[in-house]
Design brief:
Shape: elongated
Radius of gyration: 22 Å
Largest sheet: none
CATH architecture of the largest domain: Orthogonal Bundle
Helix content: 55-70%
Structural class: mainly alpha
Order of helices and strands: HHHHHHHHH
Number of helices: 9
CATH superfamily of the largest domain: Tetracycline Repressor, domain 2
Strand content: under 5%
Distance between the termini: 79 Å
CATH topology of the largest domain: Tetracycline Repressor, domain 2
Number of domains: 2
Number of strands: 0
């Protein structure tokens, strides 16, 4: 029966070659942005770094900024997470240490630009979205700690600002290497202050 199926192109299978090539290109883009920052990112380097033909890059992302934006948002899936081990102090210290490590890379410095965007663009919007996702993940972890009785009721956004502020200060000023001890001290002081100032029933 002639139903036209012979003329159709075969459907792309999920996880097929094109999906693998796209994943390689996005991973390469993230690594290049992390290495060089957005300003230093060179579109033409992606194919070689990803081990694919350059036409694969241009066909999937004819626009340089679209490629950067998609890569940043994919990277955010790993970036915007806070562990839940049941120990709020440990989880926040891990978060702070990871934040410091990220800020010390060219990619992290690029993220910092989203706090003070000089102009609106798709890239700046993507960076802002990544930061928003990090804030949301931290809020969820703090709210869970409050529900479990690990912490008294607290404004999770304020707590996030209190623990991340010193990290930005130390890292951005290049004062010294941020250490695990720094993370533990910052979290310890902030949590002690929150518990000490909580209204008593």
């Amino acid at each position: 029966m002639a139903d036209g199926t012979a003329d159709r192109s075969p459907a792309r299978r999920p996880g097929g070659r094109n999906a693998r090539v796209r994943a390689q290109i996005l991973a390469a883009t993230v690594e290049l942005v992390a290495r060089d920052g957005i300003a230093g990112f060179r579109y033409e380097e992606v194919a070689e770094f990803a081990g694919v033909h350059k036409t694969s890059v241009y066909r999937n992302w004819p626009d340089r900024e679209e490629l950067v934006v998609e890569a940043l948002l994919r990277y955010a899936e790993d970036l915007a997470s806070v562990a839940d081990t049941g120990d709020i102090h440990r989880d926040l210290a891990d978060f702070v240490l990871a934040l410091a490590g990220g800020l010390e890379t060219p990619f992290g410095r690029t993220l910092e630009q989203a706090f003070q965007p000089a102009r609106q663009s798709a890239t700046v919007e993507a960076l802002t979205k990544i930061l928003d996702q990090r804030v949301a993940a931290l809020r969820r972890r703090v709210d869970t700690a409050v529900d479990r009785g690990e912490l008294p009721p607290v404004d999770s956004a304020f707590l996030g600002e209190m623990i991340s502020g010193p990290v930005h200060l130390i890292v951005n000023r290049g004062m010294r290497t941020f250490t695990r001890e720094d993370a533990e001290r910052i979290v310890g002081v902030v949590l002690a202050g929150i518990r000490a100032t909580a209204p008593h029933a």
